[in-house]
Amino acid sequence: MPENKAPLKPTDTELEILQILWQNGPSTVRLVNEEQNKTKETGYTTTLKLLQIMFEKNLVTRDEESRSHLYQAAVTEEETQQSLLNRFLDTTFRGSAMKLVMQALGNRKTSPEELDQIRHLLKKLEDESSASDS
Amino acid sequence: MPENKAPLKPTDTELEILQILWQNGPSTVRLVNEEQNKTKETGYTTTLKLLQIMFEKNLVTRDEESRSHLYQAAVTEEETQQSLLNRFLDTTFRGSAMKLVMQALGNRKTSPEELDQIRHLLKKLEDESSASDS
DNA sequence: AAGTTTGTACGAAAAAAGTCGTAGTAAATA
DNA sequence: TATTTACTACGACTTTTTTCGTACAAACTT
């Protein structure tokens, strides 16, 4: 059981780095930096410093065995998404998940397969709620 | 037709203020400040300055007729939500609207009525997409 | 009319986030 | 072994965002 007190609020850059770590697994500073540079030129020490800060915040762990440390996300993508989603929902959609969903679906082209998946989820949610009504 | 070039990225505090303006319509600095204070103690001139900055950024307009100016949101809630949603989707969910929707629905209790509304939307989306396939 | 209250304007401090240079050391290589 | 390369540590500078103090003016109050 993680003992993560704080509501988990990575900054924009921290989130970018987390994405890289989630996608690549344990990575050296250099690798993270190279990934970052695909999007936006970033100095090596900048990346290093960020990772060090994230380490202090317990957003990442690191393996110091070899000379170039291996950094790894200490939070899962799902829990981070959930946390950010809740915050976003409150600040931007005044807490209305419905409205967010409607806009997300409405203004983006969603494939029929995806729509179908959502339909399944809806059914499941409905079943669950009626089951708990007993 | 608005000539809004920038992708519309209000900061957190700016968004709070926009929310207040959307809910209350044209408002004086004082009113905005009082609303803010319900959540978080904020000095009067702090609010004033923010509104002035937002005015320069064209996030709000103002009526200077009477001594206490009336500020009004210059962007709609919907377009702002849409813009922030797109950004959020990209940075946090790597662009997958589906995943966001699933998490939004899954981890929050959504009422049967709301689920039903979404179901209607799904149907509409489906109809539209098959219609445009002609 | 003098004084108090309620405004705006605006510079500048404080806080938060991101960037980078320099020092020092281990490892590779010439 | 001397040199160059690849790392970490860390302080400090920059930029962005937020907060606030002070100055000054209009409009009420007495």
Task: Report on this structure.
Two copies of one chain form a homodimer. In chain A, 63% of the residues lie in helices and 6% in strands. Chain A has two domains: 1-95, Orthogonal Bundle (Arc Repressor Mutant, subunit A), CATH 1.10.10.10; 97-134. A two-stranded antiparallel ribbon of chain A has the order 1-2. In chain A, helix 2 (29-39) crosses helix 3. The longest helix of chain A has 21 residues, at 112-132. The first copy, chain A, has helices spanning 12-24, 29-39, 44-56, 77-93, 97-106, 112-132; strands at 60-63, 70-73. The first copy, chain A, is mainly alpha-helical and 134 residues long. Chain A is built from six helices and two strands. In chain A, strand 1 and strand 2 form a beta hairpin. The A-B interface holds A 12, 15-16, 19, 78, 80-82, 84-85, 88-89, 91-94, 97-108, 110, 112, 114-115, 117-119, 121-122, 125-126, 129 and B 12, 15-16, 19, 78, 80-82, 84-85, 88-89, 91-94, 97-108, 110, 112, 114-115, 117-119, 121-122, 125-126, 129. The structure holds a DNA duplex (30 and 30 nucleotides).
H/E series of chain A: HHHEEHHH
Number of helices of chain A: 6
Task: Domain count of chain A, please report it.
Answer: 2
How far apart are the termini of chain A?
A: 31 Å
> How many β-strands of chain A, per DSSP?
2
How are strands sequenced across the largest beta sheet of chain A?
Answer: 1-2
CATH topological fold name of the largest domain in chain A: Arc Repressor Mutant, subunit A
CATH class descriptor of the largest domain in chain A:
Mainly Alpha
What coarse outline of chain A follows from CA principal-axis ratios?
elongated
Q: Label the CATH architecture of the largest domain in chain A.
A: Orthogonal Bundle
Helix fraction of chain A?
Answer: 55-70%
Largest protein-protein interface: A-B, 40 and 40 residues
Mean pLDDT of chain A comes to 89
Structural class of chain A: mainly alpha
Please indicate the percent range of residues of chain A in DSSP E strands (runs of 2 or more). 5-15%
Largest sheet of chain A: 2 strands, antiparallel
Q: What kind of oligomer do you see?
A: homodimer
Identify the CATH homologous superfamily of the largest domain in chain A: Winged helix-like DNA-binding domain superfamily/Winged helix DNA-binding domain
